Amino acid sequence: MRILVVEDEPKVASFIKRGLEQAQNVVDIASTAAEADYLVSVQDYDLLILDCMLPDEDGRKLCRRLRARGVDLPVLILTAKDSTADKVLGLDSGADDYLTKPFDFTELLARVRALGRRRGRPLLQPIAIADLTIDPVTRRVTRGGQVIALTPKEYALLELLARRVGQVVTRAEIIEQVWDMHFDPTSNIVDVMIKMLRDKIDRRFEPKLIQTVRGAGYMIEDPS
């Protein structure tokens, strides 16, 4: 799933992002309600994880505004506000679920999976593009019925591209999502990994799925 986490504490945001990415999600971070509002308007998300105590606005107000605009993506409020009254206000603002800090990450993941199932786009649903199949549960990858062995980084890169089929993924995004580090424009690590992945996914098969978009990044194109 593609998840937007709205959290203004950098350490908390980084912790949540890392854990969700390890569970094979694509994660964006917004530190303000205004930034989150903009990202939701330009990107299709499967889930919004929302803190209440944001520097520019109460997260519940943002949730009400999104619902008023007809935005129907699942919203999970994740906040230190733990009173019954706060929970009622959060759910009445349009949130689908409410989890208080501190929290157990396994519980957060379970709630994320449940919200994904409710929307009809299960977190662990297999991905199929042409004759390429990716099983997020077992991390088993096949093409043309042949099992393809990938390293953990190769798999993470492939799933990132596959979950955004038809969309360009920039080198900076790949570095952040696969290696969890800031982009170094002088590094060719992404290009090297793409070549290794192509050797396994595309070299012996047709059509070629992994495309280079010059000056932008890479994408998987669905030939169907």
Automatic annotation (TrEMBL):
<dbReference type="Pfam" id="PF00072">
    <property type="entry name" value="Response_reg"/>
</dbReference>
<keyword id="KW-0805">Transcription regulation</keyword>
<dbReference type="Pfam" id="PF00486">
    <property type="entry name" value="Trans_reg_C"/>
</dbReference>
<dbReference type="GO" id="GO:0005829">
    <property type="term" value="C:cytosol"/>
</dbReference>
<feature type="modified residue" description="4-aspartylphosphate">
    <location>
        <position position="51"/>
    </location>
</feature>
<dbReference type="InterPro" id="IPR036388">
    <property type="entry name" value="WH-like_DNA-bd_sf"/>
</dbReference>
<dbReference type="InterPro" id="IPR016032">
    <property type="entry name" value="Sig_transdc_resp-reg_C-effctor"/>
</dbReference>
<feature type="domain" description="Response regulatory">
    <location>
        <begin position="2"/>
        <end position="116"/>
    </location>
</feature>
<dbReference type="InterPro" id="IPR039420">
    <property type="entry name" value="WalR-like"/>
</dbReference>
<protein>
    <submittedName>
        <fullName>Two component transcriptional regulator, winged helix family</fullName>
    </submittedName>
</protein>
<keyword id="KW-0804">Transcription</keyword>
<feature type="domain" description="OmpR/PhoB-type">
    <location>
        <begin position="124"/>
        <end position="222"/>
    </location>
</feature>
<dbReference type="InterPro" id="IPR001867">
    <property type="entry name" value="OmpR/PhoB-type_DNA-bd"/>
</dbReference>
<dbReference type="GO" id="GO:0000156">
    <property type="term" value="F:phosphorelay response regulator activity"/>
</dbReference>
<dbReference type="InterPro" id="IPR001789">
    <property type="entry name" value="Sig_transdc_resp-reg_receiver"/>
</dbReference>
<keyword id="KW-0238">DNA-binding</keyword>
<dbReference type="GO" id="GO:0000976">
    <property type="term" value="F:transcription cis-regulatory region binding"/>
</dbReference>
<keyword id="KW-0902">Two-component regulatory system</keyword>
<dbReference type="InterPro" id="IPR011006">
    <property type="entry name" value="CheY-like_superfamily"/>
</dbReference>
<dbReference type="GO" id="GO:0032993">
    <property type="term" value="C:protein-DNA complex"/>
</dbReference>
<keyword id="KW-0597">Phosphoprotein</keyword>
<dbReference type="GO" id="GO:0006355">
    <property type="term" value="P:regulation of DNA-templated transcription"/>
</dbReference>
<feature type="DNA-binding region" description="OmpR/PhoB-type">
    <location>
        <begin position="124"/>
        <end position="222"/>
    </location>
</feature>
